Amino acid sequence: MLKAILKFFLKLLSFLIPVFFIQWLIVYLANFKLTEYIISSYVFNFTAAVIIYTGTYYFSMVKSLDSILFLTFGSIVKMFIFFIFLYPQFISDGAVQPIEVFIFFVPYFTCLIVEINELSKFLNKRV
Questions:
Q1: Tell me, what's the pLDDT at 59?
Q2: For the segment 107-123, what is each residue's pLDDT rounded down to a tens digit?
Q3: Which parts of the chain sit beneath pLDDT 70?
Q4: Which of 7, 37, 61, 82 has a 20 to 30 Å separation from 111 between CA atoms?
Q5: So what's the pLDDT on residue 97?
Q6: How far apart are CA 22 and CA 55, in angstroms?
Q7: pTM for this one?
Q8: What is the DSSP string of 86-120?
Q9: Taking a C-beta distance cutoff of 8 angstroms, is the pair 36, 44 a contact?
Q10: What CA–CA distance (Å, rounded) separates 87 from 80?
């Protein structure tokens, strides 16, 4: 189990690091002063993806149908945590700018795509 989680960890990093630098460069060159939000968005989404993948992987290994529930509820909890911790940063100036939406959803969808891709590969092997 640890080997699969480490493999996912490294694969996720291999996607997130280039995306991070491209996004940071775009935000920096566009002269937006929001680069500190980028780091917190990436750390948050990376951590949540690893936790959700690990839990889903664990529940599928013990042949439990709870794996799909863990994936679903983990994703819902991730959005609640976003609204509790990250959203207040984005609305601190009184409004959510389109660039702020871009800052959060690029790492969110990157993590989601890698997470679903890796879980579907794993779960299809088990069938």
A1: 87
A2: 999 999 999 999 888 87
A3: 34-35, 64, 127
A4: 61
A5: 77
A6: 30
A7: 0.88
A8: IHHHHTTTSS--HHHHHHHHHHHHHHHHHHHHHHH
A9: no
A10: 10
Q: What is the DSSP string of 38-94?
A: HHHHHHHHHHHHHHHHHHHHHHHHTT-THHHHHHHHHHHHHHHHIIIIIHHHHTTTS
Rounded to whole angstroms, the Cα distance separating 77 from 71 reads 10
Q: Quick one: CA dihedral 19, 119, 121, 11, positive or negative?
A: positive
In this prediction, residue 127 carries a pLDDT of: 62
Q: Two tokens at 95?
A: 């409004």
- CA 32 to CA 20: how far, in whole Å? 15
Any idea where the domains of the chain sit in the sequence? 2-126
Task: Please give the radius of gyration of the chain, using alpha carbons only, rounded to the nearest integer.
Answer: 16
The residue type at 112: L
